[in-house]
Design goal:
The chain is rod-shaped. A five-stranded antiparallel beta sheet has the order 1-2-3-8-7, with no helix packed on it. Strands 4, 5, 6, 9 and 10 form a five-stranded antiparallel beta sheet that branches. The protein has helices at about 1-15, 20-30, 170-220; strands at about 35-40, 45-50, 60-65, 80-90, 90, 95, 100, 115-120, 125-135, 135-145. It contains three helices and ten strands. It folds into three domains: about 1-30; about 35-155, Macroglobulin (MG2) domain (Immunoglobulin-like), CATH 2.60.40.1930; about 165-225. With about 230 residues, it is of the alpha+beta class. Helix 1 (about 1-15) packs antiparallel against helix 2 (about 20-30).
């Protein structure tokens, strides 16, 4: 669809159809929303999330749409040609590879579009660092979510109804607290068990000592006095 809009825009510019030009520009702005355009030599890369708005805990992906200088989609990238590392805060993913979102043999799907699957699990701004090469042209691009680039990841509380489900971070925090309480309880139980064993040992020792004393006393009583 993006390519059709670009072609239509070029036609309108050449024909100087002002009103239609404004309409197509508005449509292009709508389609391009949520992606930032970067250049690598003669190639343009539209970079953003695969699905927007972008919510925590929902399967998503880093999306890149690639065209050459003549606006032709690039459809022959190998799996290892481009990679992306995703980061947020002080956390960083490993290298993710891109898969085509189209079927070249069948001619189906958005040509030139590639996705690297990922599920964001924390709200906030994310950074994409793309590296590799397109037909030998080096690619080293870093983009961060913002109002001018692509969507910031949002929590899901605002769209949940009727019950608010705790976030993954809240669940993890609660589990950590529960683990701490269980650990304390285990320590207390272990201490009680040790005290019980010590008490039982001391009791048994007292019985043995008492029995020995009783035997000694009986023997003493049987021994005739001189």
């Amino acid at each position: 669809m993006r390519q059709r809009f670009r072609s239509a825009l070029r036609d309108l510019l050449s024909n100087n159809q002002g009103q239609d030009y404004v309409l197509v520009v508005a449509m292009l702005a709508s389609v391009a929303a949520g992606h930032v355009v970067k250049e690598a030599g003669p190639y343009s890369l539209e970079i953003g999330w695969e699905h927007e708005p972008t919510y925590v805990g929902e399967a998503n992906g880093v999306q890149v749409i690639i065209h050459d200088a003549d606006d032709n989609p690039i459809t022959d990238l190998a799996t290892d040609d481009l990679k992306v590392v995703v980061s947020t805060g002080d956390q960083q993913s490993g290298e993710l590879t891109f898969e085509p979102a189209f079927d070249l043999e069948e001619g189906e799907g958005p040509m030139g579009q590639y996705n690297a699957p990922i599920m964001p699990t924390a709200p906030g701004d994310y950074t994409f660092h793309l590296t590799g090469a397109i037909h030998g042209e080096p690619v080293d691009i870093t983009v961060t979510s913002s109002d001018e680039t692509f969507d910031t990841v949002r929590g899901t509380a605002e769209i949940q109804f009727p019950v608010k489900v705790p976030t993954l971070n809240e669940v993890a925090t609660r589990l950590d607290r529960l683990d701490s309480r269980l650990a304390i309880a285990d320590d207390a139980q272990a201490a009680a068990n040790r005290a019980l064993l010590v008490g039982a040992g001391l009791g048994l020792l007292g019985v043995i000592i008492g029995a020995a004393a009783l035997m000694v006393a009986r023997r003493a009583a049987r021994t005739p006095r001189v």
